[in-house]
Amino acid sequence: MANHYKFECLNVSVSPEGVAHVEISRPQALNAFNTKTWTEIGQCFTQFKTDGDVRSVVLSAAGRMFTAGLDLKEAMTGALGKPHDADADVARKGYYHRLFILDFQSAISAVESCDKPVVAVVQGGCLGIGIDLISACDVRIATEDAYFMVKEVDIGMAADVGTLQRLPKIVGNDSWVREVCYTARKIQPQEAHSVGLVSSVYATTADAMRAAFDMARTIAAKSPVAVVSTKHLLNYSRDHSVREGLEYTAIWNSLAHNSHDMAAAIMASLKKQPAQFPKL
Amino acid sequence: MANHYKFECLNVSVSPEGVAHVEISRPQALNAFNTKTWTEIGQCFTQFKTDGDVRSVVLSAAGRMFTAGLDLKEAMTGALGKPHDADADVARKGYYHRLFILDFQSAISAVESCDKPVVAVVQGGCLGIGIDLISACDVRIATEDAYFMVKEVDIGMAADVGTLQRLPKIVGNDSWVREVCYTARKIQPQEAHSVGLVSSVYATTADAMRAAFDMARTIAAKSPVAVVSTKHLLNYSRDHSVREGLEYTAIWNSLAHNSHDMAAAIMASLKKQPAQFPKL
Amino acid sequence: MANHYKFECLNVSVSPEGVAHVEISRPQALNAFNTKTWTEIGQCFTQFKTDGDVRSVVLSAAGRMFTAGLDLKEAMTGALGKPHDADADVARKGYYHRLFILDFQSAISAVESCDKPVVAVVQGGCLGIGIDLISACDVRIATEDAYFMVKEVDIGMAADVGTLQRLPKIVGNDSWVREVCYTARKIQPQEAHSVGLVSSVYATTADAMRAAFDMARTIAAKSPVAVVSTKHLLNYSRDHSVREGLEYTAIWNSLAHNSHDMAAAIMASLKKQPAQFPKL
Amino acid sequence: MANHYKFECLNVSVSPEGVAHVEISRPQALNAFNTKTWTEIGQCFTQFKTDGDVRSVVLSAAGRMFTAGLDLKEAMTGALGKPHDADADVARKGYYHRLFILDFQSAISAVESCDKPVVAVVQGGCLGIGIDLISACDVRIATEDAYFMVKEVDIGMAADVGTLQRLPKIVGNDSWVREVCYTARKIQPQEAHSVGLVSSVYATTADAMRAAFDMARTIAAKSPVAVVSTKHLLNYSRDHSVREGLEYTAIWNSLAHNSHDMAAAIMASLKKQPAQFPKL
Amino acid sequence: MANHYKFECLNVSVSPEGVAHVEISRPQALNAFNTKTWTEIGQCFTQFKTDGDVRSVVLSAAGRMFTAGLDLKEAMTGALGKPHDADADVARKGYYHRLFILDFQSAISAVESCDKPVVAVVQGGCLGIGIDLISACDVRIATEDAYFMVKEVDIGMAADVGTLQRLPKIVGNDSWVREVCYTARKIQPQEAHSVGLVSSVYATTADAMRAAFDMARTIAAKSPVAVVSTKHLLNYSRDHSVREGLEYTAIWNSLAHNSHDMAAAIMASLKKQPAQFPKL
Amino acid sequence: MANHYKFECLNVSVSPEGVAHVEISRPQALNAFNTKTWTEIGQCFTQFKTDGDVRSVVLSAAGRMFTAGLDLKEAMTGALGKPHDADADVARKGYYHRLFILDFQSAISAVESCDKPVVAVVQGGCLGIGIDLISACDVRIATEDAYFMVKEVDIGMAADVGTLQRLPKIVGNDSWVREVCYTARKIQPQEAHSVGLVSSVYATTADAMRAAFDMARTIAAKSPVAVVSTKHLLNYSRDHSVREGLEYTAIWNSLAHNSHDMAAAIMASLKKQPAQFPKL
């Protein structure tokens, strides 16, 4: 299988079982997010959406920490949005800056909208934009040396690429969410585990990676119609009333239930044998 | 009190205090859900809505497991929706199949929309549609031999009668929710307890049933206006913004506060005596 | 700094660092909420919104309990809404009573809409309206003698000033939320902690107050633009889809990113020095 | 074709082309709506939804006027909702009365949710509930002796089975809508035509009926998949943002485009020949 | 009846029948809107909401034009929001300016939220904020010398106190709405009539006033419960789906139907006699 | 000014005043929409969004008709979405087909989301996708030989790229909208004018083009901040409640009001002189 995923800041590979591995790889810069990095994340996960060979994804980062957050040196050059002139009319600057933020958000949201489940593995620090990113993943696991900081408030801004939208909806403890968003304090992995930010904590990165790939392979072996539908419907339902979620599900499944997978899976289930499912 | 609740797959009784007991009873089929079963659940809880004699409900299942999930044998006969012809135009099949799913959803949602609090007791396995059903209940308790599986992905489909809508809103750990929905893995009762899927775990079914009835009787002794209003408003507010929830509550209570119950309850509270409340 | 905050039922002070302290002070009545009390809470937090000297808030209560709940004696005089005549047309009574509830709700919601983070400290009992109030705060901490009761059902009504809207969204355990709302049972501080109703439990009120002020001072030292934006966007995002939350954030930050605070904070961060931020 | 539509207050027939005719028939009572009438309307249109033999509908009324509105004599007996006791607790009465209104609304909304286009023909007076009913239809035509009154305000109530929801969305003149809702004044057919309440005005009932059946037959000859989808999507889109409407349409058509009808219709269109479409 | 409505920029009187007349009265400044003017409009209509003596309202303006729009001289002094310093941090200025806009919007929206129908009479020019204001009224009538301009784009801004929200929802011609909003061109009264911006056009101001008061008196003679409910529900329904509008209406009317007005009105209707309704 | 707009199916030019002209140019195929055509429309209008040189747009089509609709020959080759295999699993085909429709919709919606006002000129026939396209424009004008057909139902499908979402919101006559969507009948230009589908009808194409460019030039001479804000806010407000529209407008204008344009425009207005506004 040729690798159609060539990036500068990401290492991407896809296993024969359909598990893609995305490794953020700017370890020399502590995986700080420059524009290149998030642009490539957007491109990579958008490509996953229509790549039937990809059935589930493991997202990790190279080096001693997951990410130091936004690349502050690039941010200071102000290459954000269009009018580079510091004296430019603020409404004009703001208009283009808004479009810039929307692009940034869209890249991170591609992780969510790719419809393939994504398991994130966090080792070392995961700061600022790192929280925005893992909040857009499906499952999060960490190593014992991991720590987390909703760092944006410390650079004078409100997080704007997903943390404030998604973190409160993935962790059922609003008192905790607000405290860590207002104070930017360090969160230890056990604390992250106890509030549900991560599903499990492993002693070493190797252990965590092994667990992540095990889970991803398990998912990749299921019917891709069932898996993709489940992720899509979970995301839709999070953002709608139960009633609207049910109605959207009904129309979605009136199509999906015509898949051969369902009969194959039921038959396999009745015979207590494994089933094979063609790619999406 | 005559029993107006005669069903094939359910045993239903109502106590003088106003506690209804609904027991799913197809133990020989491990309480697998055929069309009859969920149709009767819909009918039963719809009837509860206008039955003033019912103030709270305990829902349990007979035999060694809560439910094995969807009745796969019936499902394989394809009696889902209208055109029975396998060669039928897919748009026509889909149109009727969507109506079928909406009916199924509506039956399960009757548990939620009946406005009387429902306490579910889970013993043994609770698979697939079982999760959809208990997610529509108010309080869930389990026995030590209980286990849970969001099984749908293993029959090649996305859960479509409530799990994907309600489970993430009753459990504040999205990483966990997604993992169990994508992998269909077995969930032990203590794990279910720790994420909040169940409120408590009891050694035996007898203990769990006793606890459920205690809670249901406590609720049944309160003002039914207050209890029914509380359930109704919790459900409305889950699906709306805080502001819309408050405004709906204001108009609801501008009526409900005219009830005699409120004065009676305040008086009893000031006198530190129990109050009696007429049925709804 | 002159104190512009003179109230009958509240003691209010603002520290030089920008931490306001609001103390509910009707200890002789166990801080029961009469109309005066909630009216003043509304006025006080509304004033905070446009007071640049206030950057964060600690909310506590004087005496041996946080609050006994609604002032039942006042409630029994029926001074709720306009037509005092018991025989008045129920639609007319209801119209004005609805406006009364909306006013009450609005006062409590001022805690949320003031845009400055609020840390609540609960000692002793916190009943009924007390739960509505602390649910509108950002962070909740308690002492070991604290206990909580969603008491409204025991006075024959559904909670109508915020508990049913906010509690399920701050605690990720719906089975627990519904149980305590239907039964009005006593909740111990450790239980409140384990479900996430409170972030931490301290041995004494003094310890809890110290922790609250530490947190509030930490927040007050951050950029007020960043902090206020974070609270505002968390509230907006709770009530909207992720997509709508992101879009609102983009337009909000296209303005906020023009603040001097961001450059100052980034520079300080790069130099590893503390930054000073002017008041809002 | 046997007639499965036997009602007391309605005459219903279905033509071989698939045009159903529903005639409200209580001329001796000026077609005043008693409970029987609207209950049957709900039943009839619900049945149409799953009856493939029905492709479009003409709705008219027998006698000299379309309807005099609500049957006031029945209304005065107060048979609305459950507790018949005038002294019943107002919250209890209100609870059941709300369910009664929801049932009434649901019956009228069945005209909208049946998914088959409905052409209403109005002759003589169309008062009160008559406006609610025709607002739930797709196309409205009138005779020159027709007149309309949003009469509810004159019986001391706000219209509650659809007029206030639908009328402002079918007529693009809010100043006019509000005037006629507040004053209950008589609307002449030409005025109804000029604001778009009706699409056309005919000299005689016979002319209007002929025009209605012509339109209904034209619709019945189209692909029922296309027609039903169009009505369903128009209704969904009215109640959602353009973006949500488009997304729902995409999932709907990803199923519907698999229909044989589309290829048949395109082929017929390219060959400039008529196509035949099997029933839904 | 004492006049509780004393304002600087408004003349307000209330007739014995319950018709309030609000006259904007800064004719020397062509009724240009300074802060005082819109603040008083907010106060006046907020007071109407709880004043049972007011059942309907006529809104007009003194002098030769309805309003020249925003008072540009005041606007140029920049007294908008808090930090008066031109060099103030733009995020801080923006924060307070947003609160200023919200206050302005809230004043204009009071016309809508007062629940009493408002008939606007426009003579001479109605520019900028004038359109925002009349769009918040229920019924609009004009004189032959009236003209309208959505003027904001000509002062370099998008209309922000209601025109862009309400105008497209009161006029069913989006092509026209957008043209006049982008070009700020003059709209003649007949054109305003033909698109439905105004309900009728009268030769003289006296004629228009007479028509407005006739309509207002007609409305004031109806059951105030029915009228207020109708306005409230029309506004709610405009902003919600048909389904949500119906459900809100059901709970609203489950209260309102307990009013004595309904029985009185039905009885009067059956006896063909006028009914008298006590004030709200 | 170099022309950055090179397309195969479109001729695009931008005047020095900032008026872009987009001409659909496949006259030999009656401007039937193949994939290339709509893809380029999406690209062109997306580019307009960030091109400050473009302030308003005129959209027209070359040859004797605006468009014959979808290119049926291309459609019959089935190049819609991914799996080209007719035997492919219907759920898999549907998944990719849905993404295909979303892409198509997104291209048409670019006309709306480009934030620059678009005036469409229709001559000759405007069928099917042509209606979807002009419904996404701001202002529509036609020639006397124009005619319109919502043609989709005649090719066996529901319109899915915007007509069913936007047409009912731009034309305030639902009875008419539904009739033309169900019957696909021919609409004459005067009829289109009377329902508000087009703003005006001109004798010749030359006249219509002249009127369109006059309007576009008028718009291009206004502050681009004001114009872009107005279009953006009209679109946002169409899809939200009045309250949400107002709140979004407040945050938007708290930025936009910092523009130099506002002061320049007010000054020019007070001096009664024209103002010049720099490009966005």
Task: Describe the SSE topology.
Six copies of one chain form a homohexamer.
Chain A: E1 10-14, E2 19-24, H1 35-49, E3 56-61, H2 72-76, H3 90-113, E4 118-122, E5 125-127, H4 129-135, E6 139-143, E7 147-149, H5 163-170, H6 174-183, H7 189-195, E8 200-202, H8 205-220, H9 224-238, H10 242-256, H11 260-271
Parallel strand pairs in A: 2-3, 3-4, 4-6, 5-7, 6-8
Antiparallel strand pairs in A: 1-2
Family (chains A, B, C, D, E, F): Belongs to the enoyl-CoA hydratase/isomerase family.
Keywords (chains A, B, C, D, E, F): Acetylation, Fatty acid metabolism, Isomerase, Lipid metabolism, Peroxisome
Pathway (chains A, B, C, D, E, F): Lipid metabolism; fatty acid beta-oxidation
General description of the model:
Chains A, B, C, D, E, F: GO terms for molecular function: delta(3,5)-delta(2,4)-dienoyl-CoA isomerase activity. Six copies of one chain form a homohexamer. Chain A contains eleven helices and eight strands. With 280 residues, chain A is of the alpha/beta class. Chain A folds into two domains: 10-220, 2-enoyl-CoA Hydratase, Chain A, domain 1 (Alpha-Beta Complex); 224-271, Lyase 2-enoyl-coa Hydratase, Chain  A, domain 2. In chain A, the strands form two sheets. The first copy, chain A, has a six-stranded mixed sheet, with helices on both faces. A two-stranded parallel sheet of chain A has the order 5-7. In chain A, helix 1 packs across helix 3 and helix 9 (224-238) packs antiparallel against helix 10. The mean pLDDT of chain A is 95. Chains A and B meet through helix 8, helix 9, helix 10 and helix 11 of A and helix 2, helix 3, helix 5 and helix 6 of B.
